[in-house]
Amino acid sequence: MATLANHVHQRPSHIQRLRKNLRFEVITRVLIRYSLALLATFIFVYPLIWLASASVKPNWEIYRQPLQLIPSEVQWDVYERLFQTAPFARYMTNSVIYALGGSLISLAFSILAAYGLSRYRFRGKRLTMVLILTVQLIPGLVSMIPLYLMMRWLGLFNTQHGMVLLYGSLRIPWAIWVLKGYFDTIPIELDESAWIDGASKFRTIWQILMPVLVPGLVAAFIIIFIGLWNEFALASVLLRNPDYLPVSVGTYVLLGPDESDFRLTAAASLVNIIPILLIFSVLQRYLVSGLAAGAVKQ
Amino acid sequence: MITKFRFFPPGRERVAKPRNVSNQRTFLERFISGPWPWLLPAILMLLVFRLYPLLSQLYISMTDMRIATINQANFIGLANYEFLLNDRAFISTVLFTFVYTIVGVAGQFIIGFGLALLLNQPMFGRLVYRLAILSAWVISSLIVGYMWRLMLSESSAGVLNAWLAVVGIDRVSWLSDLTTAKISVIGVNIWRSVAFTMVFMLGGLQTVPLEILEAAKVDGANAWQRLMRVIVPYLRPLIGLNLIFVTIATFNVYEQILALTGGGPGSATETVGLSMFKVAFGSSIGTGGLGLLGRGAAIGTVMFIITFIFALIYLRLWIFTKEDD
Amino acid sequence: MSKYVRFVSFMLVAVMLSLSLSVAPTMAQDEESDEVITIRYLTPQWASSRDGRVERQIAFQSVIDSFHLTNPNIRLQEVVYDGSQVTAAQEILSGEIDAIWINNFWYPEWQRAGYFADITPYLPEGEEAEFFDWTIEELRSINGELGALWHNTDTPIFFYRSDVLDEAPQTWSELRAAAEAFRADNPRDYLFTMPMRNWFQLNAGMYAALGGELVDEDGVPVLFEDGNREIWLEMFEFFVGMGLDNLIPSEAAVNTHDSQMPLVYTGDVSAFYGNNNMFIRALQSNLPPDELELWEAAPLPRPDNAETGLYVAGGWVIALVANDDEARQEAAARWVHHATAFNANRDTNKAGGWVPTRPAVIEQDPFYAEDRFMQVTLAALNEGGYVRPFTPLIGVITEQMALAMASAFSGEASIEDALSAAETTIMAEYAALSSD
Q: Which end of chain B is more exposed for a tag (fewer CB within 10 A), N or C?
C-alpha cells in the first residue's frame, strides 16, 4: 500500500504501471495471507490429526511409526470403551449443564455490573474495580479446603445445582472486567439517543447496547465456557457421585493413575473437544458480524 | 448539598439525565439511582462463593496446616513466608517463572493478535482456520502435557525428532536438556493458549468503527500504520485487559509442566504454580509429599502479590483512563 | 437485528434448560428400615465397581455382592473419590464414612491422630497370621492398634529382553558391564533406562541394604550423618556416573515410571527398572505381539557390597474409621475384613494387577503361580521386602532424594550440591514439623 500512496502524486504516464503493481500486490498479499493461515492451521492441527490417528492405530504403531498418520489397521475399540463401559455420554451432559449454566449466570450478573461500572462515575470506582479483580488474582488451589467445608454447610456439596452456582461465581470478576472493556468502546452518545427517546436503562441495555455488544459477549461466553468445561480441581473435590462428574474429571477417572493406553487418552481428549467446536462454529459468526459498525452509524 | 454520613457516594451520571435531578433525594433514592444496584447482584455472588474461601486461604497461609493433620492447624504467623524467602530453590523458581511468564505472554499476544487480525479478514475457509486454532486451547492442559510429552519424546517415538531426522537434523533433547527443556515448556504453553488472545481480540476488533479505518485509508495510511495508529489505540483498554488475563493464566500454569517435565530436569522448569501444587499436594499420589497446605497457601499469596503488581502496572499503563475515577 | 434476537433466544433456552436439568431431583431416596445398617465405604474410582475397565467392575462388584449375601442386615454404600489425600482427609473428618481405601503412606499420621479404630476385636482368631507378617507389623507399629488391613502391594523389578540379555545382572557392576558391552555394539541405543523422578522409590531398599538409615528411633532424620552420607555418595556416583558415560538415556532425568515407557515400546532400550505390574498394564497392550514373549524380569540389581538386595513394598490399605456408633463400627469392621479376605484379595488384585497380601492366595491360585513376573515379585518380596519407615518425613525425603538425583544426573548441580540442597530442605521440614 505504501507504493500506492506514493504513486498517487505522480504523473499520469505511470498509471499503467501502477495498475500492474497493484494487481501484483493484491496477489502477493492474498498469497501471504493464505499461506500464513495455512501455516498456522498446520501447526495447530497437526498434533490433533496425529492424536486422532493415534486413537485408532494399533498401540505399538504409535511408537514404532511416529510419522505415519494413516494406520495400518483401524481399531475403534477405545471409542466403544468410552461410551459403553464408561458413562462418557453422561459426563458430557454434565459438563454441558455445568459449563453452560455457569457461563450464563456469570454473563447475566456481569453485564449488569459492567454497565454500572462503565456508565456511572462515582467515588471509589477504581477501588471497587481493583477489589473485584483481586478476587480473580488469588490462585485458588488451597482455598479448595474451606470451599469444601462451605459447600457442605450450604448443602451444595455433591449436587449439580451447587456446581452450576459455584461455576457461575468463578468467572464473574473476569467477565465484569471484560464486559466493562467492551462497554467502554461503545460511545455514550448511543445511550443518550435512547434516553432522549424516553427509553429506560434496562431497555437501553437490552435494545441498544446488547446488539453492539454481541461480538464481545460471544467472545466472553466462549472463553468462560471453555474455562469451565476444562475445570478440574473443584469438580473432583466437590462431587462424589460418579453420575454427576463432568467430562474433565471423567477423563481423568477413566485413565486413572495406572492407565497406560495412550489411545484412550487420545480418544477421550478428542471426544472432549467436539462439543466445544460445535458451539464455537455456531457462535463464531457473531464474532464477525458487522453489527458494531452498523449500530454506531445509526 | 452537604451530607454528613455518606456510606455510598451519590451516583452521578456521566451525562445529565433527561429528567430533573432534585437535591432532596433520600439516601435510598440516591442509592437506587446510583451504580450500586447494578453491581449488587454480582458482588453478592462473589461474597457468597468467593470471599470466605479466599479469606480462609489467607488464614491457612499463616498456619502449619498439613493434609495429614488437617484439623489440627496452629497459627504460626508469618513463618511460612519467612521460610519461602529464605529458600533459595523457591527464589530461583520465582525467577524462572518470570522468564516463563514474560516470554510466554509476549509470544501469546503477538501471535494471538496477529492471528486475530489475519482471521478477521474475509477469506475462504476462515471458520476452519479458527476452529483449528481454537481446538488446541480446548484440550485440557494435563492432556496437552501428555500429548506433547510424547511428541517431544527423545525416544524414537518422538514426532518432532522424527521430522527433524527427515530434514537431516540430529536428535534434540527437548525435555532433558537444561535449556531446551525451558524452551519446550514455554513453547507448549504458547501453542495451547494462543487461542484465548485470538478469540478475545476477534471480539474486540469488531468494535473498531469502520469509518475510522476508512478515514485512515483515505488519508493514505498503510496497513501497518492503520494498525498502530488506529486499531491499537482504539483497543488499548482491551489489549491491557487481555494482557492482564494472559499474564495471570500463564503465571498459574502447572498441569502442563507437571506432565511434560515435572519441573525437571532437577528443578529447571519448575514454576511457582507447580511449586504450590507440589508443596500442598505432593508431586503424585505415589510419592505423597508433605502435604503442607499452610505453605502452599503462602505460595498462593506470593503469587497473588506478584500478579497483582503486574496487574497494577498494566492498569496504570493501559486501562485506567481519567474517566474511570 | 434478527441475528441478535436469535442469539438472545438461544441463550434463554439454554438457561432454562440448564437450570431445569440441574434443579431436577437428583438423588433417589434411600429407604432405611431400622434393622438394616447402612455403611459408607470410600474408595478411589479406579478401585471400585465404577471403574471404566470391565474386569475391575466385575471384581469389585462381586465383593460387594458376596458381602450383602453373607450380611443381609448390612447395606454397603460404595462412594468413590478421586484418590487424593486431601479428599480422603476431609471425608474422614466429615464423619460420614465408615471405611476407606487409602495409600499406606497416609496411614501413620491418621492412625496417630486417632482417625481409625482397632479392628482386632472383630477379627476371627488367627486371621492376622494369614497376611504377610510385615503388613500387620507395620500397621501396628504406630500405637499397637490395627487400624487397617493391607489390601495390595507392589515392588519394583528389573525387566529385560531375553534375546538381548541371557541373564539379568545381579549386581551394579554386572549392570554397568552389560550396559557398556551393549553400547559398544549399538552406539545409538541404550541397554536400559530408569525413571529418575521415582529414583527413591526404586532404590530406597538398596540404601537400607547398604546399612543406611533414614530416621532414628525418635524420628530424627539421620540420613545425612557421616556413614549414611557415604552411602548416598556411593549410590549417586554410580548412577550419575552411568549418565556421564552415556549408559542411560538423558531423558531418564525427567522420566517417571509411566513417562519412560515410550523408550521401551519403541525398542530403544531392552531393559528397564519398573513396577512389577508394568507387564500387565503397559507392555501387554503396547508391544507388538511377537515381542511380548521375549520379556523376562528379575529382582533389581543390588550394590556390590550389599549381600542381598532389599525391595521397596508399597500398596493400599483399607482402614476402619473410628465411630461412636457401635453397630456401624462392627458392620464396617466386617466389611474391611471381607474386602481383604481370601476371595476378595484374590479377585480384586487379579483385576488390578497388584500383588495380594495373603501368601496363601499366591500359593494356591494358578493365575499367580503361572505368572513369571508375579513369581519374580514374590521372590523379591519374600527375600527382601522392605517398607519405608512410617515417619511423617517420608514424603519429603522421597521427593527430595529423587530431586537430588535428577538434578545431579542432568548436570544441573554437582552431587555434593544436590545432596546438601536435599539435606537443607529435609532438615528444615523436620524443624518445622517438630516445632509444634
A: N
